[in-house]
Every structure is written in C-alpha cells, then in structure tokens.
Design brief:
The chain is of the alpha+beta class. It has 9 helices and 12 strands.
C-alpha cells in the first residue's frame, strides 16, 4: 500500500496533471465577507507538461441551471449559497459549472473587488496597455494606481457584460506580466500580504509554485485568453422582465473541448 502511494506521489510530481481553477471576483460585498454576486467568473486550466494556460471568461448574466435552486443568472449561485452558509459560495459555483459546462473543477480562488486597490498599491501601480481608447484612456501604455485600476475593472460604461469581461482579462494579463518581471520581485511579499486580506482559496500551497512555473513557461502573452462571446449566447427577457443570456451550447462546446479537453 505504501509503495502504491509513493508511486502515485512520484507520478504527481514528475507528470503533473491538468489543474482547473475557478477564479471568482466578488463585488460590493459587506466588509470582511464574501456575500455578493460573482461579477467576474473565469474558468482557468493549467497543463504544466505542454505547457498551456487557458482562461475562459463566463458572462455573469448567463442563464443556467443552478443545482438546488433552479434556473437563474450564473453569478447568483455564489450569492444564494453564501447567504445560506458562509464559505459555500465557491462550491455552489463549482457545482453549477460542472452541471452546465461539464468541466470538473476542484479548486477556486475568490477575491473581493475592493481588495484590488490595495494589491495594486502594494505593486507600486500597474502598467496597462490599451490597444484602443477605453474608459477615457487613449490608446497606449498607462501607469494606473489602485483606485484607477479598481474603477477600470468595475467600469459599466459599456453596453453589456462582454465589455466588462474584456476589462477583467486585460487586468489579469497586465498583472501577470508585471509580477513576472524581476524588477517587481522585491514587492511580492507586500503584494502577497495585501492579497491575503481579500482573497480566499482552497488551492493547496504546494500547487502555487507549479502553476506559477507553468505561467512563466507560457509567458503572459502566451496565455489563451478567451470569452464566451455574444455569438455564443441568445439574449432574452425572463418572465420577470430581466435581460439575460441564454447559452448557445453548440457554439460553446467546441471551445470547451479545445481548452479543457472534455
């Protein structure tokens, strides 16, 4: 028995498996809680051997079946569960992803949006490159402080949720690009401390170096950033008059196969 466990452990180190992680951004939650809707939902996958890192942004207004609740916006899965049992929100969202997308997820990282300000300040500000004019910034590279980055991530001035998802992807890419730069490494302890005040995760500590090395091997520009696009959804109005997005599964399924191998 011990020999089998040793072989499994060795295989885990030498041939690391695919790891899927649910990244959740919780906005407008009461202080020191996570009681809020997940306005950012990103399904990430890490394959150390290829190497490959993929991140798929899911619209918060996607109309899905929430286990134990029924049909509703996907961002409410976290809110409903967290209100009933603090700490259960990420697992309810995980179960919702499994039920609707057929992708297995064991780990999550969730962060309160309000904590982004302190993280960016600990980083010394964040360099963000805008390919075109956006949120009042002209095209080009801009060094933003914590308040500016938080406002950018929260920006609702676009016409729909797809606009905000693009902002979230751009923030993540910029953040990763900056933290892998050697000039930033002296600031990482302060960044870590700031993140831990607003972050919650069940990802084991020994996974972090593996995922970090995978990102380094791929490089920030090599991350496969995708979103569920407008063409993958069918907008409609619920009986209560809410504008939501029905998933077009025949259009979404090929993306799931490419990114997550399902």
């Amino acid at each position: 028995m011990c020999g089998c466990l040793a072989m499994i452990g060795a295989a885990f180190v030498v041939v690391p498996p695919r790891t899927n992680v649910l990244l959740l951004g919780v906005d407008r939650a009461p202080d020191e809680t996570f009681l809020g809707r997940t306005d950012t939902i990103i399904l990430a996958t890490f394959q150390p051997l290829k190497p490959y890192v993929g991140m798929l942004s899911i619209p918060r207004d996607l109309w899905v079946v929430i286990p134990g609740v029924g049909e509703n916006r996907i961002n409410t899965a976290h809110y409903f569960a967290e209100g009933e049992d603090p700490g259960s929100g990420p697992f309810a969202t995980r179960d919702t992803i499994r039920e609707n997308f057929g992708v297995g997820v064991n780990y999550f990282v969730r962060i309160r949006f309000s904590g982004i300000k302190n993280i960016v300040e600990a980083l010394g500000g964040l360099d963000m490159e805008f390919p075109e004019q956006v949120s009042g910034y002209p095209a080009g590279t801009h060094h933003l402080n914590g308040d500016q980055v938080l406002a950018f991530v929260r920006d609702r001035s676009g016409t729909d949720d797809f606009f905000r998802m693009a902002h979230g992807q751009l923030f993540l890419k910029s953040f990763i690009k900056q933290v892998v730069q050697p000039a930033t490494w002296l600031r990482l302890p302060a960044v870590y401390a700031a993140a831990m005040r607003s972050l919650d995760t069940n990802l084991p500590i020994w996974y972090w170096p593996r995922l970090g090395v995978t990102i380094l091997r791929v490089g920030p520009d090599g991350i496969d950033n995708r979103v569920i696009t407008r063409e993958m959804t069918d907008p409609f109005m619920t009986n209560e008059g809410a504008q939501v997005l029905g998933p077009n599964w025949p259009a979404i399924e090929p993306v799931l196969v490419e990114m997550f191998g399902k």
